[in-house]
């Protein structure tokens, strides 16, 4: 598995397995174990997915050394604010059954954000979290929060795929040496994307599937991708992207597919109201 280096010199596997919306108590356990057997060494979960315990069990049962697996989790809004966040970090570590987390993010940009960030910074300084980062942060939100941060986030995890290229955000993140991570890298299975003419013709040329072309393009863009699949063959295929290379011309063809219309707008007050109301514990 190829890796990228983060701004604090930590390395991160370039492709991770995302477990968003996979239920706990079985399905996440099975999917994570299958992914680890297929060669994934980077699992992306979140307190808000309510499946950290299955991820932790699968990691233990895989028999793979903890040091070889990169675990990302995220703090949910209900646990924002400095004191709550300290407890939230401990809860994630307990559910995952680990004594450190590789990367921990603030999942959504609402509530007492900077109070929570301070708790992440302290856990980072204490070595409980190896890297800390942000998620769903637009340029406007970055400008709102950046001055309240002492430790520079290592990553910003946002919606990113050939139709949603976040070009302005990428520029601002690059200026700050914050690496992008892609959620919905395959457009959440969007047929228009997976059947796009440019992508399908590249798939034919390289004898790969459309998903692999997209994930290879994301890799060559320097972005970490978190594809999700419940199908073992596709799961394996999605990390089998390191034996070919898109040309500069092909990278440009892919860059031209951008429609700049994310499915999720973090600045929409309706999203703030909806997500702030989502409770994951009493
Ligand atoms: P499946 O679970 O049947 O493989 P995203 O990661 O952007 O959220 O996309 C996930 C969706 O894309 C799932 O519906 C998944 O279906 C599908 N998918 C995953 N890998 C591929 C692939 N290589 N080609 C086509 N579809 C894929």
UniProtKB/TrEMBL annotation:
Gene3D superfamilies on file: NADP-dependent oxidoreductase domain
InterPro entries, A to Z: AKR, Aldo/ket_reductase_CS, NAD(P)_OxRdtase_dom_sf, NADP_OxRdtase_dom
PROSITE patterns reported for this sequence: ALDOKETO_REDUCTASE_1, ALDOKETO_REDUCTASE_3
Ranges for region Disordered: 257-282
Residue ranges of every copy of the NADP-dependent oxidoreductase domain listed in the record: 29-258
Keywords of this entry: NADP, Oxidoreductase
Keyword Oxidoreductase: yes
Site location (Lowers pKa of active site Tyr): 74
Binding-site residues, substrate: 107
Gene Ontology MF, one: oxidoreductase activity, acting on the CH-OH group of donors, NAD or NADP as acceptor
CDD domains reported in the protein's UniProt record: AKR_AKR5F1
Keyword Hydrolase: no
Active site per the UniProt annotation: 49 (proton donor)
Family as reported in the entry's similarity comment: Belongs to the aldo/keto reductase family.
Name of protein: 2,5-diketo-D-gluconic acid reductase
Organism: Faecalibacillus faecis
């Amino acid at each position: 598995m190829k890796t990228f280096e983060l701004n604090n010199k930590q390395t991160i596997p370039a492709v991770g397995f995302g477990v968003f919306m996979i239920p706990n108590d079985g399905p996440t356990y099975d999917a994570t174990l299958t992914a680890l057997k297929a060669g994934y060494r980077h699992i992306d979960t979140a307190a808000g997915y309510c499946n950290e315990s299955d991820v932790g069990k699968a990691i233990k049962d895989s028999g793979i050394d903890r040091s070889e697996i990169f675990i990302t989790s995220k703090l949910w809004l209900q646990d924002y604010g400095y004191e709550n966040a300290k407890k939230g970090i401990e809860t994630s570590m307990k559910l995952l059954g680990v004594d450190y987390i590789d990367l921990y993010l603030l999942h959504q940009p609402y509530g007492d954000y900077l109070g929570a960030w301070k708790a992440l910074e302290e856990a980072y300084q204490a070595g409980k979290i190896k890297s800390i980062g942000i998620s769903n942060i637009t340029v406007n939100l970055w400008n709102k929060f950046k001055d309240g941060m002492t430790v520079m986030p290592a990553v910003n995890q946002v919606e990113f795929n050939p139709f949603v290229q976040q070009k302005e955000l990428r520029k601002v993140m690059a200026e700050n040496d914050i690496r992008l991570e892609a959620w919905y890298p395959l457009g959440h299975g969007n047929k228009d994307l997976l059947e796009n003419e440019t992508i399908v013709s590249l798939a034919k040329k390289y004898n790969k599937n459309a998903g692999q072309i997209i994930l290879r393009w994301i890799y060559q863009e320097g972005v970490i991708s978190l594809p999700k699949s419940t199908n073992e063959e596709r799961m394996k295929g999605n990390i089998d992207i390191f034996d070919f290379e898109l040309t500069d011309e092909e990278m440009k063809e892919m860059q031209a597919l951008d429609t700049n219309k994310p499915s999720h707008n973090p600045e929409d007050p309706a999203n703030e109201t909806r997500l702030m109301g989502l409770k994951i514990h009493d």
